[in-house]
Design a protein that fits this description.
Layout lengths: L6 E3 L11 E5 L5 H18 L7 H9 L5 E6 L2 E11 L2 E9 L8 H15 L4 E6 L4 H7 L3 E5 L3 E6 L3 H6 L1
Parallel strand pairs: 5-6
Antiparallel strand pairs: 1-2, 2-3, 3-4, 4-5, 6-8, 7-8
Helix pairs in contact: 1-2
């Protein structure tokens, strides 16, 4: 994902918030902004699970951010979110998919996910991810063909074979 720079994507959603978004490569200067976004977006779920730590939520992003595989989601020159698609263990891993709160619930997440999954489908790749137990994001992933592979008290691990979204709609 990070290799594609300034990819303009015409969104298929009808929401004004989901139109005209752009994926651009992440740069080092984005790291702290993304760390803050992660802390904001994940706070409620981590607090609900008794796992929120003001420092650790940011440090985990700093420690695991793959500059090569991460893209920034921009709308009107404003950072709207980020997404990482990283190869590992014979599949692609969807990680660090965060949208700014004011961009959520408007079709942007689905539009970005359709684009990302279109690429992994074209490569014939399975996609894995983990989402926190009870997170609303799980419904988004299920709508796009992800199914539960395993879970524990904190995380739900999901997987999506190539073409699963298209198969789910058929």
């Amino acid at each position: 994902m990070g290799a594609q720079s300034d990819l303009v994507v015409p969104a298929r959603a009808t929401s004004a918030q989901a139109t005209g978004w752009v994926l651009r490569s992440v740069v080092e200067a984005d790291t702290e902004v993304i760390a803050e976004l992660r802390a904001t977006v994940m706070r409620a779920d981590l607090e609900r699970l008794g796992r929120y730590d003001e420092h650790r939520v940011r440090q985990r992003l700093r420690d695991s951010l793959s500059m090569q595989h991460t893209s920034i989601i921009m709308i009107d020159r404003e950072l709207a979110g980020c997404v990482t698609v990283r190869p590992s263990e014979g599949r692609q891993w969807l990680e660090h998919f965060y949208l700014a709160p004011h961009c959520q619930g408007r079709g942007l997440g689905s539009a970005v996910l359709r684009t990302v999954l279109g690429r992994t489908d074209a490569q014939g790749m399975t996609v894995g991810l983990n989402v926190l137990q009870g997170s609303a994001a799980r419904r988004l992933y299920e709508r796009h063909g992800f199914v539960v592979e395993a879970q524990d008290p904190i995380d739900v691990f999901m997987v999506r074979p190539p073409g699963a979204s298209a198969a789910a709609k058929a």
